[in-house]
Amino acid sequence: MERMTTLSPILKQATPVVVDHARGSWIHGTDGQDYLDFTTGIGVTSTGHCHPRVVEAAREQVGKIIHAQYTTVMHQPLLQLTEMLGEVLPAGLDSVFYANSGSEAVEAAIRLARMATGRPNIVVFQGGFHGRTVAAASLTTAGTRFSAGFSPLMSGVHMAPFPYAYRYGWDQATAVEFALRELDYLFQTRTSPADTAAFLIEPVLGDGGYLPTPPAFLEGLRERADRHGIQLIFDEVQAGVGRTGRFWGHEHSAATPDIIITAKGIASGFPISAIAAPSATMAKAWPGSQGGTYGGNAVSAAAAVATLEVIQEEGLVENSRVRGDQLQAGLKEIQARFPAIGNVRGLGLMQGIEFTASDGTPDPTTAAAVQQATTGQGLLTLTCGPAGNVVRLIPALVVTEEEIALGLERFEAALAVVTG
Ligand code: PMP
């Protein structure tokens, strides 16, 4: 009998595309088609695919040392990256710990917050996505699909409402007031502040629906964190590194974190993640309490250094803001022509299009059909949201005015196919 090995169906494919090669905002498939990539490997290839500077930095590093194991011997790219991060990290967050993935960094942040406060509980916000390891999945409330079937999850996690104004049918101020009131109520009913180590929140909900967190909400969390000695952790894995038109997503508010988490866009596709906190906080974790064989890999760190240089030299944070405004304005024009679109929102190059039925309820069927149809138009997109009714657009930070215009054209063509 012939034996055949296949990829596990656990991997749910969003498109049938197989890549031959990719450059900038474009993926060239083995089918001979060119696809405008508004997915960037889920917000990872920040400087575009195979930016020559990133490719060169990685190539050069491969010839020097690939793996040095950072607890055995230190390597130069990680020292250089740490110095460069100092220029962009929020004031006071002067100590950095490296891992490989967003999930690992989330776990590191949670462990640090628990060790630093001596408290057990973590408060997360409805719709948040923080990763897929068991601990990270325990903190994720962006959909039951991320945790169903493999309970029990990690204990000590409590969920508070997120100010989702559009879904509640409220204005933003009312939604923020409600969510903060519910948080205070959670303190009275489930986890007292004295038992609460941290708030964990994304400045823009990612997999939970591409929803910017209202600045007043982040500021309300900051005020409560200060009042109760709770660590405020910003998960900037998807919203950070220029994605929202500011270097960090939280910079759209006045709130600053006690611990910040970064990954994805920091190295243009090479696996590396980091958390940063004040040295005094990091000193509360005993040496060896965190780590890993591959953490802070030399080639990834070299790619991260090149990525930060490219972002700075090519003005990519500003490009993200300007091209993001262009994208959102175009989407709002399209919304006026397609009643299936209930809401368009986002910051910078992180834009969500929420599909709703005529009664205002989520419409995942249309969202999925549109996402599929964009591939046929030569545009790669993804869905997100607890109900799966949001199409998200995540172009590379190097995206041009012409590419955004073309993306909008192709998106509208896909809508026309689906809605007839
Ligand atoms: N946090 C956020 C906000 C994310 O978007 C993700 C990935 N989508 C993660 C954490 C987990 O990162 P990773 O997949 O690298 O483990």
Per CATH, the class of the largest domain reads Alpha Beta
Strand proportion: 15-25%
Helix content: 25-40%
State the fourth-level CATH superfamily of the largest domain.
Answer: Type I PLP-dependent aspartate aminotransferase-like (Major domain)
Q: What does this molecule look like?
A:
The strands form four sheets. The chain has a seven-stranded mixed sheet with strand order 4-12-11-10-7-5-6. It is of the alpha/beta class and 420 residues long. It has helices at 40-43, 52-62, 76-88, 102-117, 134-138, 165-168, 172-189, 215-228, 279-282, 298-313, 316-337, 364-376, 401-419, and strands at 19-23, 26-29, 34-37, 95-99, 121-125, 157-160, 196-201, 204-205, 211-212, 231-235, 259-262, 273-277, 341-347, 350-355, 379-380, 382-384, 390-393. The chain is globular. 4'-deoxy-4'-aminopyridoxal-5'-phosphate is lined by residues 42, 101-103, 106, 129-131, 202, 206-207, 235, 237-238, 263.
